[in-house]
Amino acid sequence: MRLLAALACTAILAAPAFAQQLAATPPMGWNSWNHFADKVTDADVRSAADQLVSTGMREAGYIYVNLDDTWQGTRDAQGVLHPNSRFPDMKALADYIHSKGLKFGIYSGPGEKTCGGYTGSLGHEAQDAKMYAEWGVDFLKYDMCSFWDNRAEATKAHPNDPNAARDVMIAAYKKMGDALKATGRPILYSLCQYGVDQPWKWGPSVGAQMWRTTDDIDDSYGRMVMIGFSQAGLSKYAGPGHWNDPDMLEVGNGKMTTDEYKTHMSLWVILAAPLLAGNDLSKMTDTDKSILMNKDAIAIDQDPLGRQGDRLYQSADIDVWTKPLSNGRVAVGLFNRAWGPRDISVDLSDIGFKSGGNVRDVWQQQDLGHKAGVFTSTVPRHGVTLLIVSR
Ligand code: GLA
Fold first, then answer.
1. Is the confidence at residue 7, as pLDDT, over 60?
2. 179 φ, ψ (degrees, to nearest 5)
3. Atom of ligand 1 nearest to the CA of 192
4. 168, 308, 337, 366 — which has fewest CB within 10 A?
5. Which domains does the chain possess?
């Protein structure tokens, strides 16, 4: 029994070699949805690719250019799905993105329709996967959307089976996972079904390297922290080749304060979340750049150990999270959710530094020297102090 439990645990923690190569660390890039939504055009995606290069985002690690929903047109008599008039030539778009040293991501779903009401992949999984491979697609986000109806039908058809809806959904996700594998092209597979039925437990078995754990984010502090802090307890399901995805970044979209965006970035890197920028890259301010391209923050996310962080402590106003890093280092986030500044402390001996450690402040970009015992920081309203403690 114990052996079986140990084997099950290994299956969760160690993703297949194929998955590890595709996503040894959390995927990074840009996605069209949070800013452009259903207005996105071929020109917007090309411009995002240009901007990833000119802003330094590509060098910082953001390499996927992901076109989200609303690129689809209609299927022809042979079932081939054609893009709509905003995307005249997908192969040419993929070639353009690749010519910039970037990778191309696309979007579909297991239902008849996508969330935007465009054509989904139901019944055409292998055909669509083959076409993506021919275009040169490197990433697929597969979004449940109208497959909710198929789940409901399964429950109706099998009223005595409490798992009917879950099983039909997992089978649909596996169908596309298998179809992608059959193309022979490495295509990163990203599940988007809002965390329904705990995808962190079955995501790897359908061939996925990442899965959304929650419903959609929006550009507000309330929604962002609700999602971010709800990830407590999920760290054991993430690791090289398989990542929990609390949704894309809103940094730079304008409706949060600088401290709130720093909280967003800090929480996501402690969560070892995929970092998919969702802003208009042609309008980035210096502050947006300094948040999205903070080298220490990115290094926390991309640490080769591949461990997701988790909550150490929570009270009414504050949250303290830690993430184990390589070489015995630890990242610490002191988060203030209150309406005014708060002094937040962490006892370094509680996080493995009995005789203290060297403390670096990520947002100040400053080494604070050797500290021991209780470390306290005054954190602004809705802000964060993000630290790396090393030996
Ligand atoms: C869902 C997803 C979003 C986005 C939209 C597109 O809401 O969760 O991330 O892909 O669909 O329609």
1. no
2. -65, -40
3. 8
4. 366
5. 2-301 (3.20.20.70), 310-390 (2.60.40.1180)
Q: Per the residue annotation, which of 50, 216, 259, 310 is the catalytic one?
A: 216
Q: Of residues 42, 69, 138, 143, which has the active-site annotation?
A: 143
Name the pLDDT band for 21 (thresholds 50, 70, 90): confident
pLDDT single digits (tens) 279-336:
999 999 999 999 999 999 999 999 999 999 999 999 999 999 999 999 999 999 999 9
Residues in the chain: 391
Pocket lining: 249 vs ligand 1, CB cutoff 6 Å: no
pLDDT for 162-221, tens place per residue?
A: 999 999 999 999 999 999 999 999 999 999 999 999 999 999 999 999 999 999 999 999
Catalytic status, residue 319 = no
Is there a catalytic annotation at residue 296? no
Read off the pLDDT of each residue in 32-51 and give the average, rounded to a whole number.
Answer: 98
Among protein residues, the one whose CA lies closest to atom 11 of ligand 1: 115
Q: Is 81 helix (H, G, I), strand (E, B) or coil?
A: strand
In ligand 1, which atom is closest to the CA atom of 68? 10
Q: Is 250 in the pocket of ligand 1 (CB under 6 A)?
A: no
Q: How far is CA 81 from the centre of its chain?
A: 27
Contact 141, 105 (CB under 8 A): yes
What is the atom index within ligand 1 of the atom nearest the CA of 37? 6
